[in-house]
Structures are given as structure tokens and as C-alpha cells.
Amino acid sequence: MGSAIVSKLINRRGTLSHEITLGLIALVLGATVFYVDAFTEVESAIAVLYVIVLLLSAEMLTRIGTTLLTIVCAALTLFAYFYSHGLGENVPAQLRLAVSLAAITITCALILRNETARAGLIEANLHLRDSETRYRYIFEHSRIALWERDYSAVRSFLMSLKAEGVSDLKDYYRTNPGVIVACTGLIRTIAANDAAMELLGHMTDGLHSRTMRRYIAPDDDTFLDLMNAIFCGERHFEGKGNLITENGESRLVIMSMSFPEDPTAFNRVVVGMVDITQREMMQKALREAQDELARASRAATVGTLSASLAHELNQPLGAIVVNAQTLLRWLNREPPDLAAVRRSAERIIRDSQRASEIIHNTRSMLTQGDRTPERVDLETLIEETRALMEHDFQRDMVDFDVNPAEMPLKVKAIRIELQQVLINLVTNAVQAMRETAIDRRKILVSLGRKDDIFVSLSVRDFGPGISEEAMAKLFTPFFTTKPSGMGMGLSICRSTLEARGGQLIAGNHPDGGAIFEMIIPIEDDHDQR
Ligand code: ADP
């Protein structure tokens, strides 16, 4: 039990043999001091030497051990005093006792304080080691490419330029393009994680011999921005740049780094990079495909318009011919009936104007026409759409009914866009009813005010309606259930309306068929009142 306590009191620091030696010396010294103090006539503060015993034992003992040893030393000192001098008054001996006790107590206090400081230091060290390990772990295992780079030389170089009077690095670069090459040669890589190695391609020779010059694309402006950030003393940098990998491939990356406040810490800056090459390429391809399809969809709409153009022009051109023949007849009369000639000429002019308007409308469809918002009377727009699609309605034997609003509704919009959306919805409705019995094939267009801000224009058909599965993907580009469909119409219609603050809502009517509702912002409703 006693030995267990003793061993508990003994610190584990130091080697065992070293501790045993020190312990023995301390024990012998303690015994000698006690013997000399208690049993000899030496008239000096010999008990002060207990201080050495305490110091020798300090390394081996815990705080409690040191305190106990101090008590023991003090007790032995007191015992020796009373043993040698009894209770009588002996001022020099009492002074020596006081000095010895003070020395023992002060030494104990110093040892304890030292011990506290040392324990604090050890703990701080452990924390430091712990956080270094954690940092290393995150650094090594991150899927983000991370580098530790030494930017101290490049910073010094940039600061020396500043000291020489350069105030605008980008301006300086225009006359001294070599400055960037010089900078790239000054940045050294200290460490890189696996993701970074993968990004740049694995290097055959060591990291440390490499500067950044090898990896920076010659036409990359981001590096100049980065240097400028250091030059201006900014604390963070983020940019999108091009890197050249070991095997010469180009990689588009987003890089991010924070610079330390302390200039001496520029020798270890962590740089993070994310490879976005694939993502950018996909997005570019998607954008191109969408543009292409939007063009194709417009062309399809224009196709509908062109088909109706011939049909539309037939009527005014026929009327012009008839009126011209009538005019000639009135002219050939003896005497010519000039009033009738005038009437015919006026009709010819009216019909020519109508023909020219039809051609103009179609051309603006083809060239996207005028794209400034104008007041659009929705009833007129519906009637125009009916006229344009008459041909389709006749071919598919579809009735086109309009449920007008209680009062005329005008919205501020780009006419051609609204017409394109409406033509798309009506075309879909016609196509959806190909399997419907002929006497039920009907498109019902309803117009009404939704609230103070929006107008509702809905297109209802009497086809099979939209299946649950199709409903979920209806507005997704490329979704189609038609053998020759492109699946872009609804997606384009929705984005066209949304771009102007509107909406396109799809649903099924409780009595069957699909219903698409265009929600169009009035924008400025003064004209409505
Ligand atoms: P596309 O007409 O080329 O298929 P859309 O984007 O216009 O492309 O339409 C996508 C799909 O939405 C159609 O293939 C069809 O399945 C469904 N759809 C569109 N309109 C209707 C409708 N009126 N009734 C039923 N389904 C419809």
C-alpha cells in the first residue's frame, strides 16, 4: 500500500535508472542533513540543505509528493531543533531554524510554480501537435486540391517594385510583361495533397524543385490578378484560371487563398483549387444545345407562320385582283364612272396594306422583330393566332373557341413572345387531340383578369390530358412523348414567360383534357381602368 502510494507519487518523466540514482542521492543527503542537524554540534543552518533534497526529488515527484516531502523536511528540521535545543530560548538557533524553514517552504513554492508552468507548456504542446495532426489529416485527405506554397519571395519582389515607385501593377505589366514570368518563377511549392497531384498530373521529380511557371497558362490573366491582390495587400483572393497539367492538358480551376496578416508568414500560404473543366464544358454544351433548340423551336413556329402566310395572302391578293378588274371595268365605261373607280382603288390600297402587314408580321417573327415591350391587346392577339393557325384547325378538324374577358385586356409585353407561347400551346393542344373523336376536338381559350397585377390566358383542350409521369417532367428540356417531338416547346414557353415576371401553369381539367394557363403581368395597368 505504502509502496503503491510512493510509486504513484513518483512522476513518470525521465528514465527509471536516472530517477533511482537521484532518489538515492536525495535519500542519503536527507539522512545526512538530519543526522548532522540533530546529533552534531554544528552551529549553522544545516537544515537549509533540505532544499537540495527537494530540488533533487522535484523531477520524480508529483505536486502532492513534493508537498509531502516539504512537510517531512520541515518536520525533521523542527524535530532536530527541539532535540538539540529543547524548549529553552536560543535566539541564534531559532533564527537558523526560521531561515531553514523559510528556505524549504520557498523552494517548495518555486518547485510547484515551475511544475505548473511546465504542465501548461506540455499541454500547449500537445494541443499544438494535435491541431497539426488534424490540419495534416484534412490537408492530405481533402478532395479539394490543396497546396502549401511559399509566396514570401514573390511578395518581397512585389513590395520592392512598390518601393521603387510602381503604384499600379496592372499598368506596369502592360509595359513590362516579363514581370509575370519573373513572379511565377519565385513561387515554390512546399507540399501538395493527393487531389492536387491528380489535378496537375503526377510529377516525376520532386515538388520542391518546381516553381509555378510550368503550370500557368501563358494567356491566363488570373495570375496577374493574384499578384495584384498581393501587391495591394489584400487578405483574400478568389479567381478562375487556366492551369497546364504535366501532360500539357488545360484545366479550368477555381482557386481560393487567404494571405496572412504577418508578412513573415507568406512562406506558407495554403492554396485551394477545384477543377471545373468538366462542369464548364457541360454547361457550355448545354447552353449551345438550348440555344440551338430555341432557334429550332422558333423556326418551327416560323414554319407554321410561313404556311399560314400563303393562306393569309390569298385572300387580300384575290381581293386586289377582283378590285383591279372592277376598276378597269368602271374605267372602260363611256363615260368612265370615276366615283366607282375611286372606291375600287381605295379597296385595292386597303387590301395591299393588309398584305403588306401580313408579310411584315411574318418577317418580324423570322428576324425576332422589334423586341421592345408594347401594349398588347390580348383579344386581338388571340384572333391573330386563330387566323395564323386556321390551316392547322381545318386540317385536324379542331374547333377554336374564345371565352373573352369582360372588358378589353391589354398588357405591356413583347407581342411576338406572347404569340410564340400561345402558338406553341395551341399546337400542342391540336396534336394532343389527334386520337379524340372529331366532334369533341375543341380548343377553348379563356381570357380574364387574375388580380391587380396579372392577366390569365388559358388554353384548354379535350385530349387525353397529361399523365402523372409526364406532369413531373413537362417543363424539363428534351422531355417529349411524341415520336418526332423535340421536348423544348414548353420549357421555352415557361422560361419566356418567367423572364418577363409571368408564369406557365399546367394541369388537367376535371372534365378531361389538359389546360395550360399563361399568367402575364400587366405591368402598368393604367390603361385597364
Ligand atoms: P414536344 O411538343 O416537342 O413534345 P413540348 O415541350 O411542347 O415538346 O411538350 C412536352 C410534352 O408535354 C409532350 O411531348 C407531351 O407529352 C406533353 N404535352 C404538352 N402539351 C400537352 C397537352 N396539351 N396534352 C397532353 N400532353 C401534353
UniProtKB/TrEMBL annotation:
<keyword id="KW-0547">Nucleotide-binding</keyword>
<keyword id="KW-0067">ATP-binding</keyword>
<dbReference type="InterPro" id="IPR005467">
    <property type="entry name" value="His_kinase_dom"/>
</dbReference>
<dbReference type="InterPro" id="IPR036097">
    <property type="entry name" value="HisK_dim/P_sf"/>
</dbReference>
<keyword id="KW-0597">Phosphoprotein</keyword>
<dbReference type="InterPro" id="IPR000014">
    <property type="entry name" value="PAS"/>
</dbReference>
<keyword id="KW-1133">Transmembrane helix</keyword>
<feature type="transmembrane region" description="Helical">
    <location>
        <begin position="42"/>
        <end position="58"/>
    </location>
</feature>
<keyword id="KW-0812">Transmembrane</keyword>
<protein>
    <recommendedName>
        <fullName>histidine kinase</fullName>
        <ecNumber>2.7.13.3</ecNumber>
    </recommendedName>
</protein>
<dbReference type="Pfam" id="PF02518">
    <property type="entry name" value="HATPase_c"/>
</dbReference>
<dbReference type="Pfam" id="PF00512">
    <property type="entry name" value="HisKA"/>
</dbReference>
<keyword id="KW-0418">Kinase</keyword>
<feature type="domain" description="Histidine kinase">
    <location>
        <begin position="308"/>
        <end position="524"/>
    </location>
</feature>
<keyword id="KW-0472">Membrane</keyword>
<dbReference type="InterPro" id="IPR035965">
    <property type="entry name" value="PAS-like_dom_sf"/>
</dbReference>
<feature type="transmembrane region" description="Helical">
    <location>
        <begin position="20"/>
        <end position="36"/>
    </location>
</feature>
<dbReference type="InterPro" id="IPR004358">
    <property type="entry name" value="Sig_transdc_His_kin-like_C"/>
</dbReference>
<dbReference type="InterPro" id="IPR003661">
    <property type="entry name" value="HisK_dim/P_dom"/>
</dbReference>
<feature type="transmembrane region" description="Helical">
    <location>
        <begin position="65"/>
        <end position="83"/>
    </location>
</feature>
<keyword id="KW-0808">Transferase</keyword>
<dbReference type="InterPro" id="IPR003594">
    <property type="entry name" value="HATPase_dom"/>
</dbReference>
<dbReference type="InterPro" id="IPR036890">
    <property type="entry name" value="HATPase_C_sf"/>
</dbReference>
<keyword id="KW-0902">Two-component regulatory system</keyword>
